[in-house]
């Protein structure tokens, strides 16, 4: 599938993103996948927070989802720049971006736990799923930062 050069990772349809992940190209790859996994988790927290009627959690979850989607783009750009230039600055970005993905995913996990504790309905399962997805996204992103160091 040819990629549109003007598209960012976050602008791709899910099917396009999955196809792009499977291509033999440097990006998008696991960093972008981790970031979008964190973004999905944050959106699940938003859903659960709506049932908990927790306006602060709704707003924070939305902001985290947006930031993590942006970080998917940043990760793809950072790795592409490193492959193109090999510069120390570009390499540093391949560490900093996954670290930021991990930090944001950690916050999603904490928020999921807080919101989940407010729920008794089946939506609590969505909060639990969000926590698991966020934990995995964080772990993957931290490992990428280690590998890129």
Structure keywords:
149 residues; 5 helices; disordered N terminus; Four Helix Bundle (Hemerythrin (Met), subunit A); mainly alpha; elongated
Strands, helices and their partners?
Elements: H1 14-22, H2 30-52, H3 55-85, H4 88-116, H5 124-148
Verbal overview:
This protein has 149 residues and is mostly helical. The chain has a single domain, classed as Up-down Bundle (Four Helix Bundle (Hemerythrin (Met), subunit A)). The protein is 79% helix and 0% strand. It contains five helices and no strands. The chain has helices at residues 14-22, 30-52, 55-85, 88-116, 124-148. α2 (30-52) runs antiparallel to α5. The longest helix is centred in the middle third of the chain and has 31 residues, at 55-85. 42% of the residues are buried. Residues 1-6 have low confidence and may be disordered.
Measured by DSSP, the beta-strand proportion falls in under 5%
CATH fold description? Four Helix Bundle (Hemerythrin (Met), subunit A)
The CATH architecture comes to Up-down Bundle
Enumerate the spans where pLDDT stays under 50 for 5 or more consecutive residues. 1-6
Q: Report how far apart the termini are.
A: 32 Å
Summed over residues and divided by their number, the pLDDT gives a mean of 91
One letter per element, helices H and strands E, the order comes to: HHHHH
Shape descriptor: elongated
Number of structural units classed as domains:
1
The total count of strands amounts to: 0
* CATH superfamily placement: Formiminotetrahydrofolate cyclodeaminase monomer, up-and-down helical bundle
How many helices? The count is 5
- Rg calc: 16 Å
